[in-house]
Fold each of these.
Amino acid sequence: MKIKHKERHRWTPDFPVIPQLLATSFGAGFLPLAPGTWGALVGILVWLPFYIFCSPYVILIATSALVIFFTVAGGYASDIAEEYWDTDPVEACVDETAGQLLSLLPMWFVHWQQGWWMILVSLALFRFFDIFKPLGIRSMEKLPGSAGMMADDLLAGIYTLIIVMTMNYFIFL
């Protein structure tokens, strides 16, 4: 499989600041090499304080709220990114942030001292599904505009969520 490399963009002064920050997951998309991985790591870093310091119920609510926020705001910002850059620009990695957050939903009931390895498993599985796009993930990219940008990563997050939930069931219950 030949990997198609897209042109990299830099900070664009004409592109409104807030949507540009959202689309690039607070600038992570501008980092060199693997912007999707950086975007997924932003999701983990935003979520981690809830996981460490909050009750399971708050973790579940906060994770759900973060998924909704990054999906809705990210979709809006990604539509604007396509106007200033090109279709599905690599810098617009907010879709990876939303997908990774979705994959962390089952972690609410795993104590943080036991769950570190599951976070790493979640990241590895999510990136596997996002990069190789099996099981219908690639077909999600065909949706128009930001729906296609977001849907493939959300489906990758759902597949990861299912595997992490299954692992949690057999390991922690």
Amino acid sequence: MKQKVHLLIILSLSPLTFFVSCGQQGDAKPYPLDYCLVGGSDLGDMGEPVSYVHEGQEFKFCCKPCIPKFKKNPEKYIQELKEESEGI
């Protein structure tokens, strides 16, 4: 019985989680560059780019391992994005 209840809760929350995560990324400022700030690769060179939203700004990475690297020092990459965006 407990398993059925847990499954029901998970299934009922899944659509909510989907809409919340979509809303967060949909409200984010789009990533303006065509390359990964962490890895330096052009987006798409290593497969489908990976998106991550940090404080209302979307960041795109060449691969999933770049996200933890970004999270270790987000201020560095936020500053780099700002400098690169001003140079466009």
Amino acid sequence: MPYYVYILASKPNGTLYVGVTKDLVRRAWEHRTGAVEGFTRKHRVHTLVYFEVLEDVRSAIEREKKLKRWRRDWKVALIIGTNPEWRDLYDEIASG
């Protein structure tokens, strides 16, 4: 079963959030709608700007922890490398 490591942003070059989930569409929707209290709701971090697919939960959690330790400029470079316009990827993943 695939797992996902993802990055959300409040706006281009704004506040970033790194997370992990087994259901990216559901989790991204929860962030977008503020369905769950926490950092992303408080800081309005709702835009899915990056994600990776990993094969198992252990690899996904390890990757999430690694990205959380990264410097901000490294995370920004990672996002820009695949999504230079910082477009919201939610519609792409939600439509299948």
